[in-house]
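lol forgot to send this yesterday, sorry. struct tokens for the thing we talked abt
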């Protein structure tokens, strides 16, 4: 029996007129502990969900594939359920299921090292701000706050000696709990995750209020190499090219710098020109880092937050971002056309679809055409679909599926079925051929003012999205006015 998530009735779709399908690919990413994962799985033609047996591939034309794009946890009450479902499915279908590693997966390498009982008291007393986040609240501040809550001392009475005495009077578990809360809230962008884990454990164990110690033990257990999160890390990879499809997927984005590059390369080295060789080398490098993590010891850690995987995740000074944490926005975090080096790399390697996540793009997947108009870049991270004061719901009714059917001529038939926050259903179909993109000629074009022609609404109007940071605003243009809009200089003219 699998841990279950509550969601709506499944919906099936996908047109049946396509013939000679070789592969069908479902891409889901950045579900971050919410039940969005289950909603997407249940809307898919390719998968079905069984509470007893987990995920199952349906009988479809061609070979079915699932690409899970990473960031499975941290912002909802279903971290364990989602991870268990994905790990189990990967084990049963190793060649048809790809688990990508996101920054939220990689952070799990920190727990066993930083919460080690031999060093936890020293960490509480001496841990400095991690080098990638200046001027940060320290674990010592959390210790002082705990002293105040317990009524041990007032601020005026506290001295270095009294604080140290207090820490050494605590149990190891209590020290770990204080440090764990600091880690989650101040260094991992997960201020509510401790509460979410407690609520999930409550549902699993039928206990109304699991203790903080039980929550701590769950984090320590599941982030070991043999735990759920540890298993995900071991089964995951940095990127994939699905065989015989022209589909490439990574968690983050492709930039002029990172295409063809692996963290162990020097800046002066020539990028690896063959995309398959590049990702094979990157995935091999990743697995080597995982093995280092498995054998990591607490005294190997020089600064808080460091693990063997730092190079591809943290913004190390002087280093540009790799494909796990890079995005495809400009410095102001706005939509832009595909960088020319990236466009050339994609064309040279005969790739037609690039699937990403990591950077929230609003309430609907972000579709951008490349400058050659023969490839689509699709970002499926809708983690901030709505502006909400409720941290437990930043998606509302927003949900979508991205499914791609690749025929025996390597034409990629893309179908995106999305539900917007106001429950409007939006369907987008495009077909990527070797030399062009068929279908609506406007969707996926970035205008000079950084607005993206995102989709076409059921009433026929085009919806434009404008992003800056995590905030996305929307406007509409009637179809008869699109010709005037497109008279402006743009990267791609309508077909």
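and heres what i got for the seq, position by position
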């Amino acid at each position: 029996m699998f841990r279950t998530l509550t969601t709506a009735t499944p919906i099936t779709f996908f047109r049946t007129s396509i013939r000679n399908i070789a592969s069908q690919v479902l891409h889901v990413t950045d579900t971050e502990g919410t039940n969005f994962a289950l909603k997407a799985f249940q809307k898919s033609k390719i998968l079905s969900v069984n509470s007893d047996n987990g995920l199952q591939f349906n009988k479809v034309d061609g070979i079915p594939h699932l690409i899970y794009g990473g960031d499975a946890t941290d912002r909802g009450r279903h971290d364990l359920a989602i991870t268990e479902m994905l790990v189990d499915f990967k084990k049963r279908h190793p060649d048809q299921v790809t688990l990508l590693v996101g920054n939220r997966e990689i952070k799990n390498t920190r727990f066993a090292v930083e919460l080690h009982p031999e060093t936890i008291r020293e960490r509480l007393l001496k841990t400095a701000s991690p080098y990638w986040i200046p001027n940060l609240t320290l674990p010592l501040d959390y210790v002082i706050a705990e002293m105040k809550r317990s009524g041990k001392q007032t601020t005026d009475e506290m001295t270095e000696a009294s604080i140290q005495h207090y820490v050494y009077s605590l149990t190891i578990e209590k020290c770990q709990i204080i440090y764990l809360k600091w880690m989650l809230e101040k260094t991992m962008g997960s201020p509510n995750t401790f509460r979410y884990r407690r609520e999930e454990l409550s549902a699993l164990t039928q206990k109304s209020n699991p203790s903080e110690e039980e929550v701590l033990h769950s984090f320590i257990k599941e982030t070991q190499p043999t735990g759920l999160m540890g298993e995900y890390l071991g089964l995951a990879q940095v990127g994939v090219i699905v065989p015989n499809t022209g589909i490439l997927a990574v968690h983050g984005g492709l930039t002029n710098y990172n295409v063809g590059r692996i963290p162990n390369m020097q800046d002066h080295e020539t990028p690896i020109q063959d995309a398959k060789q590049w990702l094979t080398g990157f995935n091999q490098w990743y697995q080597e880092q995982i093995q280092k993590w498995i054998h990591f010891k607490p005294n190997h850690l020089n600064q808080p937050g460091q693990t063997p995987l730092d190079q591809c995740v943290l913004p190390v000074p002087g280093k540009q971002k790799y494909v796990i944490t890079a995005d495809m926005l400009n410095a102001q975090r706005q939509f832009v056309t595909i960088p020319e080096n990236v466009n050339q790399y994609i064309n040279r390697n005969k790739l037609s679809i690039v699937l990403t996540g990591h950077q929230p793009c609003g309430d609907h997947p972000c579709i951008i055409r490349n400058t050659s108009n023969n490839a689509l870049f699709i970002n499926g991270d809708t983690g901030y679909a709505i502006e909400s004061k409720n941290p437990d719901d930043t998606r509302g009714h927003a949900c979508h599926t991205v499914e791609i059917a690749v025929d025996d001529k390597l034409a990629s038939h893309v179908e995106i079925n999305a539900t917007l926050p106001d429950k409007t259903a939006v369907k987008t179909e495009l077909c990527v051929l070797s030399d062009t993109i068929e279908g609506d000629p406007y969707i996926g074009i970035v205008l000079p003012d950084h607005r993206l022609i995102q989709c076409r609404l059921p009433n026929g109007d085009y919806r434009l999205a404008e992003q800056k940071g995590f905030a996305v605003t929307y406007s509409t243009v009637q179809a008869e006015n699109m010709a005037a809009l497109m008279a402006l200089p743009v990267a791609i003219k309508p077909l």
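The domain at 21-102+236-258+320-485 is CATH 3.60.21.10 (Purple Acid Phosphatase; chain A, domain 2). anyway ping me if u want another try
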